[in-house]
Specification:
Order of helices and strands: HHHHHHHHHHHHHHHHHHHHHHHH
Number of helices: 24
Largest sheet: none
Oligomer: single chain
Helix content: over 70%
Structural class: mainly alpha
Number of strands: 0
């Protein structure tokens, strides 16, 4: 036990502990995101059995999808806020619409106010994406992947919590409970400094020991000598980047290091949404009903939620050992096989509807394996890459734009689900998930670059130099901080 405590003490002494705590606080907003994503799965079945609202099928579809339709607005707002006021304050501000939206849902007595509450929580979910930028800038290359996967872990916890509470209590009570998590994020982030990269970028004049940027470095290093050494090393990078900083906004946003990751991420997110990951999430109870399982739909969704939560933790461990590219490829392969088997099973009994069903648990097994494999890569890793691939000078804005587009894809896929089932049938919808999963596997294998263990500067350099296309990102550096500035001097006093 003594060696273990010594290791923990050293981990805290040299800044690792504070880095982890900061990542926990920043990504704790993921619990609120998870509740928002999983809420419709328990909300709609409860509303269907209630005489209070008498919802139509179209109204139920809107209540499910409105949680995603305003995500893009929040993402864009988050990018602007993170650039102007900092990553920390952008995360804190996202708690305000969460609180307002959940209170409105909990107190609503008619459908229009349910719509408004759902729209507001959707904006909040989009605004919270600044957490990826914040954690990406405070983490080292060795810890960045693990710390970024805390977001899907917390989101999975929020989804599981929603499924369990949906089985035990009413949707109004869940809405009020959700307010507590938003308040916790707001308070915990107040205790932390903003990311060193943002503070240095926004700092005018020399960096001294009294400025916030220097104190932030020391906070996360817990070692003054190391912090001063890293700040001195910035001088070379800043001097070499002054020419780049003189580019116009048009040149910055149309440069290869911005455009290339933008298109890579947009296509990756498109394949992610078309593969049905979020459709199954938003319609978990109804999706399980469609498979005609002879067990309680809520308990089935809880079991799926447990698998998702456990696998999000497994992914956090795997991402420390295995590259993002490999995980996404293997994840997509597993998803492809699981939905293919499910689609063939459902199609067989659609054709032979009079036959007695055998292997009745097979659909649930396929859904579980789909969730199992999706959590190994295709669900969490695209969000991790958003915080890694863009240069610092455009990172908050471009991360907001990409996530805005991704959340638009989520809204469209969730809104179209019922129409797809009506038009293609349940089996046809599943086969569309199969096609998208197979394409995602090929895309991950042959297009997606590997970023594991690379600093943010190295990743930027990889996209900047077109001659490196197709080669693995190379180079070493001590930390993942990426800094660029214009006409700024660095002085340690």
């Amino acid at each position: 036990m003594v060696p273990l405590f010594n290791k923990i003490g050293k981990f805290w002494e040299f800044g690792g502990g504070r880095m982890v705590i900061a990542a926990f606080c920043a990504h704790s907003v993921g619990i609120s995101i998870g509740i928002t994503q999983g809420y419709s799965a328990i909300w709609l079945p409860q509303l269907n059995t209630s005489q209070e609202f008498n919802l139509t099928a179209d109204q139920r579809s809107w209540l499910a999808s409105l949680g995603a339709v305003t995500n893009p607005i929040g993402s864009i707002a988050s990018g602007v806020l993170a650039e102007v006021w900092g990553r920390k304050h952008s995360i804190q501000i996202s708690s305000v619409p969460f609180i307002a939206g959940w209170m409105l849902i909990g107190l609503s007595r008619d459908v229009p106010w349910l719509y408004v509450g759902r729209l507001i929580t959707g904006i909040a979910a989009g605004m919270s994406t600044a957490s990826f930028t914040y954690v990406g800038e405070i983490a080292t290359p060795d810890t960045r992947g693990f710390l970024q996967t805390l977001s899907p872990i917390f989101a999975s916890l929020g989804i599981l919590l929603t499924y369990v509470l949906g089985y035990l209590t009413s949707w109004r009570t869940i809405a009020f409970i959700s307010v507590v998590f938003a308040i916790l994020t707001l308070i915990s982030m107040q205790l932390l400094p903003d990311s060193p990269a943002h503070l240095i970028k926004s700092h005018a004049g020399p960096i001294t020991r009294n400025c916030k940027a220097y104190k932030s470095y020391v906070y996360f290093n817990r070692n003054v000598a190391t912090a001063e050494q890293e700040i001195r090393e910035l001088t070379t990078r800043i001097n070499s980047s002054e020419k780049v900083q003189q580019k116009s906004l048009r040149e910055l946003y149309l440069s290869p290091e911005t455009v290339k990751p933008f298109f890579i991420l947009v296509v990756l997110f498109l394949l992610q949404e078309l593969s049905g990951i979020y459709t199954i999430l938003y319609y978990a109870v109804q999706f399980i009903e469609e498979t005609h399982l002879k067990i309680n739909d809520y308990l089935s969704s809880i079991f799926v939620g447990i698998i998702r939560f456990v696998m999000s933790i497994v992914c956090a461990l795997l991402i420390q050992k295995i590259g993002r590219k490999t995980l996404c490829t293997f994840s997509s392969l597993g998803m492809t096989i699981s939905v293919l088997v499910l689609g063939l099973y459902v199609k067989y009994y659609e054709i032979n509807s009079t036959k007695t069903r055998i292997l009745t648990l097979l659909p649930l097994v396929c859904i579980i394996f789909n969730v199992f494999f999706s959590m190994m890569g295709m669900l969490p890793i695209p969000w991790v890459l958003v915080g890694e691939m863009f240069p610092l000078r455009v990172r908050p804005i471009m991360a907001g734009v990409v996530i805005c587009i991704a959340q638009t894809f989520i809204f469209v896929c969730v809104k179209m689900y019922t129409s797809m089932v009506d038009f293609l049938g349940f089996s046809g919808t599943i086969f569309s998930f199969f096609a998208a999963s197979a394409l995602a596997m090929m895309y991950s294998k042959y297009v997606l670059p590997e970023t594991k263990g690379k600093t943010l500067d190295e990743i930027e350099a990889y996209f900047r130099d077109s001659r490196d296309s197709g080669r693995k990102i190379s180079g070493v550096s001590n930390r993942g901080f990426s800094v660029s500035s214009e006409n700024m001097s660095v002085v340690v006093r």
